[in-house]
């Protein structure tokens, strides 16, 4: 177990891969994207 192990978190970091042990972080929409001019309803 450790850096050489494909299934461990350290091994994923070492290899630069992702999986169940090391999921990708999804980008959250910023407040500017949420309150954009295009999405507002017109009177």
Automatic annotation (TrEMBL):
<dbReference type="GO" id="GO:1990904">
    <property type="term" value="C:ribonucleoprotein complex"/>
</dbReference>
<feature type="region of interest" description="Disordered">
    <location>
        <begin position="1"/>
        <end position="43"/>
    </location>
</feature>
<keyword id="KW-0689">Ribosomal protein</keyword>
<dbReference type="InterPro" id="IPR030826">
    <property type="entry name" value="Ribosomal_bTHX/bTHXc/bTHXm"/>
</dbReference>
<protein>
    <submittedName>
        <fullName>30S ribosomal protein S31</fullName>
    </submittedName>
</protein>
<dbReference type="InterPro" id="IPR031414">
    <property type="entry name" value="Ribosomal_bTHX"/>
</dbReference>
<dbReference type="GO" id="GO:0005840">
    <property type="term" value="C:ribosome"/>
</dbReference>
<keyword id="KW-0687">Ribonucleoprotein</keyword>
<feature type="compositionally biased region" description="Basic residues">
    <location>
        <begin position="1"/>
        <end position="13"/>
    </location>
</feature>
<dbReference type="Pfam" id="PF17070">
    <property type="entry name" value="Thx"/>
</dbReference>
<comment type="similarity">
    <text>Belongs to the bacterial ribosomal protein bTHX family.</text>
</comment>
């Amino acid at each position: 177990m450790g850096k050489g192990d494909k299934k461990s978190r350290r091994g994923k970091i070492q290899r630069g891969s992702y999986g169940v042990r090391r999921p990708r972080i999804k980008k959250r929409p910023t407040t500017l994207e949420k309150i954009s001019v295009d999405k507002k309803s017109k009177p």
